[in-house]
Each structure stands twice: as C-alpha cells, then as structure tokens.
User: Fold STAS domain-containing protein from Streptomyces flavidovirens.
Amino acid sequence: MSGRASTGVPILRLGDVLITGLLNELDDKTAVAFTDDLTERISTDRARGVLIDISRLEIIDSFVARTLMDLTTMARLLGARVIVAGMRPPVAITLVELGIELVGVETALNAELGMTALGWHQSSQPPEGARHDAIR
Assistant:
C-alpha cells in the first residue's frame, strides 16, 4: 500500500485496485484536487479498479456529484473501473431531490461488496504461515 494524496485524502493501493474515501468536509476546491490526485494515481499505478467509499459522506451537492461522474469517466478512459460504495440514505435522497443521476457511476452497498465487484474476495482460511497451532 502506498502514500497520501496532496489533498490529505488517503489513496491506498491493494494490488491493482486503489481504495479511497470521501469525508463530509469536501468543498469544491478539495473535490477538484482529489480528482486530479486520483486520476494521476490511476495512471501512474496502472490501476484497473478504484473503490471510493462515501459511507462517511452525510451530504452531497451537485458539484460533488458531477465531480464523481467526471472522475468515473476519466477513470474509464484510463482503463479503470470505479465503484462508489456506502452511499447513505440521506445522500441518495438528496441526489433524487436535486434531480441528479450519477450516470455511468457504479455503486455498491458497502466497501466489501464493492471490492467483490472489482474481483476481490474474502478468504475464510488464514494465509499460509499465519496459522498458529495451539497444540505442539
């Protein structure tokens, strides 16, 4: 896993997938900087997938919604699939009330389901070498 974006929004790498999240305090300037940082990381890391967890986002405005759509379009042009995970009911209600459709944006109920959609799965077995036998 690697570094932090210059916006202070962490962007982690897990294999060929980037994982990031948005917080409530996302103003227009930060949203644009985040988009720039993430598209740069998609390109330099050659990411095939991006998971954006918005479960901590309590409100959304039309600018941030448009930024998510633009980010998804840019990511697709760079060869990556974007999944927005964890949308809270108030955010969904606001989008509908504003008449905003997140065209082209894939969503998942939570981050785990988003990662599954990107091809990751949780193993029920611990990794080799991680098991400790209680009886010797």
In short: Confidence is low (pLDDT under 50) at residues 1-5. The chain has one domain: 11-117. The longest helix spans residues 28-45. Residues 103 and 115 are 20 Å apart (CA to CA).
